[in-house]
Design goal:
Blueprint (H helix, E strand, L loop, with lengths): L8 E4 L10 H16 L3 E5 L5 H4 L3 H5 L1 H12 L3 E4 L11 E6 L3 E6 L6 H4 L1 H13 L3 H36 L4 E4 L13 E3 L3 E2 L2 E8 L2 E7 L14
Parallel strand pairs: 1-2, 2-3, 5-6, 6-7
Antiparallel strand pairs: 1-9, 4-5, 8-9, 9-10
Length: 234
């Protein structure tokens, strides 16, 4: 039996699954969980897996029962943990600490608390409105528009500031690597103690693998998947 401490660690998040998600997104999420189960990986889902903020608590999981079942099965086996994001605040703790041979201490956190926009009075007000009225189409549309405008105007600066704040946390608390999410931009560079596992989107499902070979970014794409057979995805 594989020892828990020696299992490869797969970190992913920002799937934002909801009743309105494209079918391909749920298929990729199911395939990721199935592959992790087959390959004996320990999984950390790093926030915003289900979009409870805009869809309503529990509704995204009901819309994607195969994904929810896959998460639950790995969790029951002691091989899956979740952190909370700003879109699924009840999913788990804000952070998880890991130890990996050859790397050292790793912190895994969604990171939304370090986002200067989220932490601002305007951001907190918007979050409160979304939590209460996020199921209304008008509220969802306004939030998506505001995010799209912010990304178009200042995405590079926002991501750079987010990275600096994450690195401050990593250095202040003595971690060797921090793996974050939230900004939907995958990042891994030699010597950089900030990493980001990316997101689930049109390009595929991005995730970070930590094993004996060190950390590496991977992407699971629809074209990589075998056809679904009775009993599940191969």
């Amino acid at each position: 039996m594989t020892d828990h401490a020696t299992r490869p660690i797969w970190i992913s998040g920002d799937w934002h699954l909801s009743p309105r998600s494209p079918p391909a997104h749920a298929r990729l999420a199911r395939a990721f969980l199935a592959r992790a189960e087959r390959e004996g990986a320990r999984v950390v889902l790093n926030g915003d897996v289900f979009d409870d903020l805009f869809a309503g608590v529990g509704r995204p999981a009901l819309a994607h029962p195969d994904v929810a079942d896959g998460i639950a099965a790995l969790a029951r086996a002691g091989r899956l943990e979740r952190t909370s994001g700003n879109h699924d605040p009840d999913a788990g703790p804000e952070r998880i600490e890991l130890a990996a041979p050859g790397i050292g201490r790793i912190i895994v956190a969604h990171g939304h608390a370090l986002d200067p926009v989220n932490a601002s009075p305007v951001g907190r007000l918007g979050d409160a409105i979304s939590r209460r009225f996020g199921r209304l189409g008008l509220v969802r549309g306004a939030a998506w528009l505001a995010e799209a405008v912010a990304r178009a105007v200042a995405e590079e600066r926002m991501v750079a500031l987010f990275r600096r704040r994450c690195l401050n946390l990593v250095g202040r608390e003595g971690f060797d690597l921090g793996v974050f999410g939230h900004v939907h931009v995958a990042h891994l560079a030699p010597g950089d103690r900030y990493a980001n596992a990316g997101a689930l989107g049109t390009e595929g499902l991005s995730y970070l693998v930590v094993d004996h070979a060190g950390p590496r970014l991977c992407t699971l794409r629809i074209g990589d998947l075998a056809e679904t057979k009775p009993g599940g995805i191969r």
